[in-house]
Amino acid sequence: MKDLKHLIYFENLLQEAKNELVDQAIKEGNHPLGYNCYYIPETLLNLPGCFSSRLRAPRCTSTDVANYYMTQRNCPYARSILERAVEGGYNYLEALFGAEACSTMERMEEHFDLYKPVKNEKFFTTIIDPPMKGDNTNLDYYKVQLMEKVLKPLNENLGVDISEKALKAAIKDHNEISKIITQIGEFRKLDNPPITGYEFHVIQLVSEVCPHYLIKPYLKETLAEIKTRKPEPEFPFRARLVIAGSEIDDPDFTKLVESCGAMVVADRYCFGSFPGREQIEIREGEKAFDAICRHFLETNQCARFMDGKKIDQRTAEIMKLYKDFKADGVIYEQMKFCEFWSYEKVLAGNILANQYKVPVCTIEKEYMLGSMGQLRTRFQAFVESLEIKAIGG
Fold it and tell me: Which of 246, 186, 194, 226 is nearest to 366 (CA)?
């Protein structure tokens, strides 16, 4: 296929957390706000005059300093984020909104607060205690956490408008960018899509790490381009896969999978679009803040949720994506040392394979793609097994 006009530009934006669009938004007087987890609603960090920056550590090659504070035997994503903070990679931030999604994440966020690696006089850190169930009691608790530890600190520390009007404007912004990303992603349902999984991964990531009002025109242009883009004469991949799991913020991971012959047609992982790019609906009689809280609790599929309904929801979402995107199999990924996703990987992998007869490949990976050779071998073998299954072997 002909190269997408803005793909190289998008790839360059992902090389640093503080990219040129982040620079531009700061120069225009906007507040840059960092976050690590879906438990912090992106929408609340995109109130008028603010923009969200989901933290990544691109091209991180060592976590030697972070290892001193956190040891090597815990989540490499959290260690990489702390390492990049010590290196000065997040000095542009005015706040970090954290969630105690796991003990390692909380420990990393506490280091931001205690040791002040971010050298910005405005910078502050706040950490919510997120719910572990999706019922109404937990929703009420979630609302209190987000009000006390997100909205009020924004207003008190940075003077951000948190009125109903401002919250509705943030919802409108969320829905606009989500509609664009969803429309682009829908092309992956086609038998011969005019977009690859790698390209979509890049597009989804720039929508999370760049100011929405600056990246949106490029995304709209890319959507229009894809609508008229001619795909390859024949589908160039040997299989179609759903990838599920924890943090995957490196498009090279998707490129690796696709180099083994399988197109990534759906992304149910942290930093992916499922969940993340659904429309927020304000129901009759509902305030904007309540709608945001309800939406993010209902759609959240973090493995930290241990109640039966949420476990069933995670499996049901994988099956829905598997069917809707006409996938041939599922790769279930777990970040090394991640306790919650290691349990989920085993449980979900067993249910998908034995109850639903879905071909599953389960893997454990580092944040940095240092073991690409081993992963390549696993993926190639999985694709070959799917081909054998397809011909009735």
Answer: 246
User: What SS3 class is residue 323?
Assistant: helix
Instruction: Give the model's pLDDT for residue 324.
Output: 98
Length of the chain: 393
CA distance 262 to 76: 26
Nearest by Cα to 245 from 312, 333, 358: 333
pTM score: 0.97
Taking the C-alpha atoms of residue 246 and residue 232, their distance in angstroms, rounded to an integer, is: 31
Kindly state the helix (H) or strand (E) to which residue 361 belongs, with its residue range.
strand 360-365
Average confidence score pLDDT of the chain: 96
Question: Token pair for residue 110?
Answer: 């506490």
- Residue range 212-237: mean pLDDT, rounded: 97
Q: Please, is 282 exposed, middle or buried when counting C-beta atoms within 10 Å of its C-beta (0-12, 13-18, 19+)?
A: middle
Contacts of 159 (CB under 8 A, 6+ apart): none
* DSSP secondary structure of 215-271: HHHHHHHHHHHHHT----SS---SEEEEEEEEE---HHHHHHHHHTTEEEEEEEEET
CA torsion angle 186 190 192 197 (round to 10): 30
Q: Tens digits of per-residue pLDDT, 38-53?
A: 999 999 999 999 999 9
Helix, strand or coil, per DSSP, at residue 155: helix
